[in-house]
Design goal:
- This protein is mainly α.
- It has one domain.
- Helix content is 77%, strand content 0%.
- The chain has four helices and no strands.
- The longest helix has 31 residues.
Length: 142
């Protein structure tokens, strides 16, 4: 594994995350502006963001590591969704814990974004888009 290659992948993942977040927030704001209840708009926005992130991750960030169409790809997409849910759970725990400890909710969210970003990158790089022919923890390939 090349450190430079992983640094580039990490930077590309940051751009993919920013793009996904812009779709998430943009659709959320449009939907609540159209009168949709905020919780429903948030779920739809988050779901759209996951879809955008899958497209950016599978076509740019982890290109060459996408499973063949069919069962393998469906399983990979499921793992991708699961990693998104893990990121969401981390966010909830960090923001909840931060607020309970008296931290400003905005600062708690910023911390949660950072932790979730790194956690989902690692999950996706090592498990969801593991290099072919290499075990998820082998550190080979890419």
């Amino acid at each position: 594994m090349s450190l430079l290659r992983e640094a580039r992948r990490f930077a590309a993942y940051g751009l993919a995350s920013a793009l996904a977040l812009s779709f998430d927030m943009g659709s959320y704001l449009l939907l609540i502006g159209a009168g949709m209840a905020a919780p429903f708009a948030a779920v739809l926005g988050y779901t759209l963001g996951i879809g955008v992130h899958w497209l950016a991750s599978s076509h740019v960030v982890f290109a060459g590591r996408v499973a063949r169409p069919g069962r393998e790809r469906s399983a990979q997409m499921g793992l991708f969704g699961l990693s998104a849910l893990i990121g969401l759970a981390l966010t909830w725990m960090i923001v909840s814990g931060g607020v309970a400890a008296g931290l400003d909710p905005r600062l708690a969210k910023i911390g949660a974004i950072a932790v979730s970003f790194v956690a989902t990158f690692l999950l996706r790089a090592r498990f969801v888009f593991a290099p072919r022919g290499a075990g998820p923890l082998s550190g080979e390939g890419a």
